[in-house]
Write a structure and sequence with these properties.
The chain is of the alpha/beta class. Helix content is 29%, strand content 12%. It has 2 domains: 239 residues, Rossmann fold (3-Layer(aba) Sandwich); 134 residues, Aldolase class I (TIM Barrel, Alpha-Beta Barrel).
Length: 424
Amino acid sequence: MAMPKLAPVPVANDKLRALGILALNGMFDEMDAVGVLRYAVSDVIPGDLAIVSSFGADSAVLLHMVAQVDPSMPVYFLETGKHFPETLAYVETLKRQFGLLNIHGIHPDPADIKRFDPNGDLWETDPDSCCHIRKTEPLEPITEQYGGWVTGRKRYQTKERGVLPHFELTSDDRIKVNPLAYFTDADVVEYRQKHNLPEHPLYAKGYKSIGCAPCTSVVAEGEDPRAGRWRGLNKKECGIHYDFSGAIANPMKAANRHTLWKDGAFIADPFKAWEEGTNPSEARYVHVPLPVFLAHRAEFLANPHPLGLLVSPGDKIEDVADDLSRFASIAILFPSFTDGRGYSTARLLVERYKYAGEIRALGDVLQDQIPHMRRCGINALVVTHEPTRQALIENRLPEVSVFYQPVGVTEIPLGTRPFLRRVS
């Protein structure tokens, strides 16, 4: 899928253009997807339109329409390096069956991958940045060469897409065409069945919305089809889409504030809250309550997905001492400012059991506590208290210079002569 070199196409910055877009949206029936696409190709921006496709669960519907209207339309596929093998095979299946003549793969810059994601695990700690270097950055120079492009977005998919029109004007005066804007999930299924379109190989396995493999999970019966995308994270878009308000255009700048403070910054949290009834063999990126882990120990140990452990006051970390290496993160609950049992748990993890992974504090995490938490080995914080957030951002936490209960061998308790202190 070699990518051709295209000459830049200038786009006029005309206020009347916006009014024309509004008029276009009144011309078509809500379900006239093929009509919208045909008019866009023949009258709105002829010869200056491309499509970006994820080749996911719903992609066959829009690509089938493209094949009917203009099989030579340039189709770009973001080959992020993180796709399921089944998705890569699906690209070839649709290309062959629909007779699409102009499919091109877009790859991230190897220099960006080497610099920002050398181990390939950036998605675990900062999925926004992972999407940025693997999707947004590679795509921008491509879209700049066209006057418009076609997407498969639909209103029902997310709250942000709830007002999506057939035609929209992006912030850089390009035209976005959304032929399936008014389609529901049932409409997509009906169209796929009516035209006997090939199904994505993972769809029957419960993957109803399919993106990169690490950030896509199976959707349970009755769940929203996109519930499996970035599950548990305050993230709904990868960063490549735009609407009138800019809410979709800049999701990383929107109000989806991160609450996990780690390595000097608030970052996206790959872990989601534990839900009662979760299947131990299928759980992933959740902090399993310690009693639940003990009750289903064998199943959790056999589970191949990353897991965390939740330790609440009264739980004995000694009970899971032999299994601590199983957990990518251990969360210690501080239910109130006055409950200090979590400090003891953290010290046990670090000093007795030599646990070297993420130890996070959650609950009543306030700025006066944080220096003490850090002294005990806590290296991540879930912070929702606004003054504490600002104190962390501005690096103005209180200091602890006097110790009555020292940690390790370097702190000297008040009133002790250092040369008499026993080192163990």
